[in-house]
Amino acid sequence: MQDKSKSLEVAIKAAQEAGKILEKYFETEILKEFKEDASITTIADKESEELIKKIILENFPEHSILGEETGMTGEQSDYVWHVDPLDGTRNYSNGIPLFAVSIALAYKRELIVGVIHNPNLNTLFYAEKGKGAYWNDKKIHVSKDEAKKGIVTVASGKMPAHKELRRNLMHYLPDNVVSAVRDFGCTAFDLAYVARGSTEADIKFGLSSYDFAAGLLLVSEAGGKITKVDGSPWNLSETSYVASNGVFHDLLVEEIKRQKEILKI
Fold first, then answer.
1. How far is the C-alpha of 32 from the C-alpha of 39, rounded, in Å?
2. I need a surface site. Which of 16, 58, 73, 161 has the fewest CB within 10 A?
3. Beta bridge mates, 22
4. What structural domains and CATH numbers belong to the chain?
């Protein structure tokens, strides 16, 4: 992209600088800390988020930042950054190279900038509202594959109902709708791969905005479709979504509805 905004340039710089921290600790004997919800954090998560916040606030001191590790900081603003300093911490802390820095900016709850970076894979995805989505400076688009050729990623948060729904979809989607279902353990890459056309859809239940904000902008700018799990219009306050190439989106929504009826949830 030739005409990057200052916001996008700052997001890319913050992601790349944070990526250096992740590289420093990757495949070392890093100490894992378990949060109350049994999720993992590490010193890499914390140092990465502090650096990202520093870079953002140096450039936009009036903006707010919602970070996974430190919650909401900064001024009350129409501009809110959604920051996951290390998405895929469990992968990362076990030496699996599928992890990412994920940074997004929303203005009045509308996503306008998104960046996903993995230093180990030398991968940089970015998007700006109305300007398309890019992977290592190459413009990308969602795939055109139909359901029977499609790969779908599915994951959920900790709520029991969400976990049951995830389990059923992992089992039944390959039988009834698509060719394969995956869970890469990194929401940022689940969505980036939809945007790049490597997979066809991503379904998530009960996550936080910093998990998916950057990735959903990528999918949207790459020509994909995003809705709530019932097929109605999605917005940033929603914690669940279906993001797809749009070719068989309605089939996924119908299968979610069917599984919810089976589970009576």
1. 10
2. 58
3. none
4. 6-140 (3.30.540.10), 147-263 (3.40.190.80)
